[in-house]
Amino acid sequence: MRCGKWKSVRCSKRPGLCQGFTLLEVIIALGIVAVGILAVSRAITGYAETTATLEQRMVANWVASNRLETLRMLASKPVPGMDNGSEEMAGRVWYFRETISTTADPLLFRVDVTVFTDKDETDEVGKLTGYLLDAPEIINTEVTPSPGLGGIQPPPVKKQIPNQSVIPDEARRRSGMTGGV
């Protein structure tokens, strides 16, 4: 606001009080508001992109977990090699590549499941590594609850009187404590 040498703004009858803003002040204020709006819009856009990426990674992890569990449920001997396929989840088709490789243990196989959003396998969105055991008789055994302790009863628990000391006699003698219990 300018009220001085140049009277470009209508001044009131009382000296020193002016009404209105100059064109330069309005332009600067609009510039500041525009920069603020731009910063807020970029933040909102970044948040939306991050949310979409996290959702994609989460669903890709579910697809990989499903593939690994499917291989575990088959309970057949894992064959080292690579296999490709697709699975529908969350309203879209996901493409995966399973790579089965041997480990130092001949009964243990490593499985890498990589998930892609496209059939050409260029956009990788998730990867999960798991292990399969080549011993279906161990994996698929039915677990039955144990019948307790087989007739053996646990030793009885001593009930303690609230004011009773819990210090054993030998420790009481060494510490010089005397007195009855």
Would you kindly provide a written description of the structure presented here, covering whatever features stand out?
- The chain has 181 residues and is an alpha+beta fold.
- It has a domain at 52-139: GSPII I/J protein-like (Pantoate--beta-alanine Ligase, Chain: A,domain 2), CATH 3.30.1300.30.
- It contains three helices and four strands; from the N terminus they run αββββαα.
- It has helices spanning 23-74, 136-139, 169-175, and strands at 81-89, 92-102, 108-116, 124-133.
- Strands 1-2-3-4 form a four-stranded antiparallel β-sheet, covered by helices on one side.
- Strand 2 and strand 3 form a beta hairpin.
The average pLDDT is 78
Low-confidence stretches: 139-146
Q: So how many helices?
A: 3
End-to-end span in angstroms? 91 Å
Q: Hey, roughly how much beta strand do the residues contain?
A: 15-25%
Rg: 38 Å
State the gist of this model.
The N and C termini lie far apart (91 Å). This protein has a domain at 52-139: Pantoate--beta-alanine Ligase, Chain: A,domain 2. With 181 residues, the chain is an alpha+beta fold.
Annotation keywords:
4-stranded antiparallel β-sheet, alpha+beta, 181 residues, Pantoate--beta-alanine Ligase, Chain: A,domain 2
What topology emerges from the helices and strands here?
Elements: H1 23-74, E1 81-89, E2 92-102, E3 108-116, E4 124-133, H2 136-139, H3 169-175
